[in-house]
Amino acid sequence: MTTENIVFIEEIIVILLLIASAVAVTARRLRVPYTVGLVIIGLVITLLNPQQVKFAPQIIMLFLVPPLVFEAAFHIRVEDLRHDLGLILLLAVPGVVLTTLLVGWLVSWGTGLALQAALVFGALIAATDPVAVVALFRRLGAPHRLQVLLESESLLNDGTAIVMFGLMLSAALQGGFDLRQSITQFFTVAGGGVLVGLIFGMSISQFIKRIDDPLVETTLTTALAFGSYLLAENLHVSGVLAVVTAGIISGNTSQQTMSASTRLVVYNFWEYAAFIANSFIFLLIGLTIDLNILFENWSAIAWAILAALVARIVSTYGFSVFGREVPAKWKHVLFWGGLRGAITLALALSLPEEGIFITERGRLQAMAFGVVLFTLLVQGFSMDWLIKRLKLVVRSPAQDEYESRHARFVASRASYDYLRRRSQEGLISDHTWQKLSALMKKKNDALMDEVKKVMNSEPEVEAEELDTAYREALRAQRTALTGLLHDGVITDDTYSQLIGEVDEALMDKNPSARLAD
What we know:
This protein is mainly alpha-helical.
């Protein structure tokens, strides 16, 4: 590779990072999933500059999927997972098998596609990617258990779907299917991936336990994420399941193996890494999709979308019967939240140009891209409406009343401060200001009393604001300590001790309770 090519690639990466940042800011203001915005921007760029972007699917699987999967798994707590583990496993294993078979049969029947090729399509479309939905859940404050259900199912079914894809692809290329051998291979590949992640995750966690250096420990978790994937793939077992297992182990042992400062650094690093991976993945989805091919295969795409929705309905509503009191509203969200994304795109692009796929590869890719686009743009955009329609985010009347009264007080105080500055600048006479200030101060005091009444009558509202304010105070302390270190006022040892105390408080779920100590 020449120097010019390296510089060109670097320029492209910088441009994509700037686009991702701009889209993220805009999406936050418009209150839409930023991943959906990235896809739309990618499509717009493709329309304005109709040069199809081509890249190896290994880029997604090797560089973008591991950080994405590891970050999500790192935040899953075993105690949360244990409550719905049976349902999650049903959706992620039998659910993926059912989706593969049902989508394959419906697509073959509706489009005339050979059953073997249709089953390959069923496998690659079985992997869900609810990144946009989970981000929306966190922003709106949807039930935590529902978030865990959706995200955990996606993490596990990504791995099982890739295993199923390999089995279906092998059967299609060889022209035959051995059920007994396929079942054995499925459990070998899936179980082997889990075993690699377990061993590698425990080993790195034990090593981290013996050191206390945030940068080194962050580096070790990076090696764990990418290393578990590479090791598993070299052993011909599931790399994604290895990363999922390693991430869950690392995240759940971090309380015992990492200091508070290290956990804060590691959390921030992986949050950023996931943001970068998501940004590149969804931009690539928009840049890769050729709209002309989609229009040419609109009939097959319609059948593919219908088949994917039917399979999702059957698996979600069917297997959720065995879950522990899963509310009907949650089932609707689990069904509609089955978005497709990075894994589906990577598997579709990895289809070989041999055997039955010489003639069907283009149509299969068009169908996969069509389903991805539908789930991201239609389902992704409508999730906000669905969550509000189902009233999953319940706010108490006291919270609404506090928010309204507090906003009135802040607005009134801002107008008071503005006029005070205008008076000090000589733009308003002292006579006018004295009259206005007395009236406005009286009104501000009355509004503040109204806010206090709500907080005194509702301890939860008071506790929430107290925690928010105290976290801001802790962040200010952290900034001050960093400034003292840079100015040479305190030594590294003193800084480490004091910053550790602040970070310990920040990691606490209820930091304001420390004020009483």
